[in-house]
Amino acid sequence: MGALQLLLVANVLSSGPDGFVSEHVLDIRATPAGVYAALTEDVGRWWDAAHSYTGDAHNFSIDPRAGGCFFEHFPNCGSIEHMRVLYADPAKFLRMQGGLGPLQAMPVSGVMDFEFVSTDKDTRLTYRFSVHGPVTAGLEGMAAPVDAVQLGQLKRLQAWVEGEAGEE
Fold first, then answer.
1. Do 27 and 123 form a contact (C-beta atoms < 8 A)?
2. 12-161 maps to which CATH number?
3. To the nearest whole percent, how much of the chain has pLDDT over 70?
């Protein structure tokens, strides 16, 4: 990844048996429109294929409109919906609901927010993922690993936008 260092430090704001909230703030050298486009249009170019069902990140796509979804196509014409888009305001805000990875099979609800704010020379991307469910879901052990994976994905997005990562 060149000069970009990946520091997978969990930033879990709260955690318990019934849920967790994680948040990260990244300053990305691009316009809000550029970061939003990379997030929604280029997901297959920066998403880590190790966190996919097909092993190929190019099978991912996001339809950034209310009712659209973040899904992965299977080579056999199958697919999986990872999250559903609830709120899309291009270059400003994106909210999706669902569960990624092991969360999808659990009786939980996750809401993922991306806020894009222009600063003097870049975009401040604020990411927040709130996951909640019944105490029996046992989410206290999921917070740090889920947060670390998501931070890794955010750093890959940042590297893609800033031109520091090649396509896999």
1. yes
2. 3.30.530.20
3. 92
Please give the full DSSP string across 5-72, using - where no structure is assigned.
-------EEEEETTEEEEEEEEEESS-HHHHHHHHHH-HHHHS-GGGSSSS-GGGEEE--STT-EEEE
Q: Helix (H, G, I), strand (E, B), or coil: what is residue 167?
A: coil
Q: Where are the domains of the chain?
A: 12-161
**10 or 2, higher pLDDT:** 10
pLDDT digits (tens, 9 = 90+) for 86-141: 999 999 999 999 999 899 999 999 999 999 999 988 999 999 999 999 999 889 89
DSSP 118-141: E-SSSEEEEEEEEEE--GGG-GGG
Query: In degrees to the nearest 10, what's the CA dihedral of 157, 159, 163, 168?
Result: -70
110 in Cβ contact with 7 (< 8 Å): no
CB half-sphere exposure, 156, CA atoms < 13 A = 21
Tell me the pTM: 0.90
Q: Which of 114, 108, 113, 118 is nearest to 143 (CA)?
A: 108
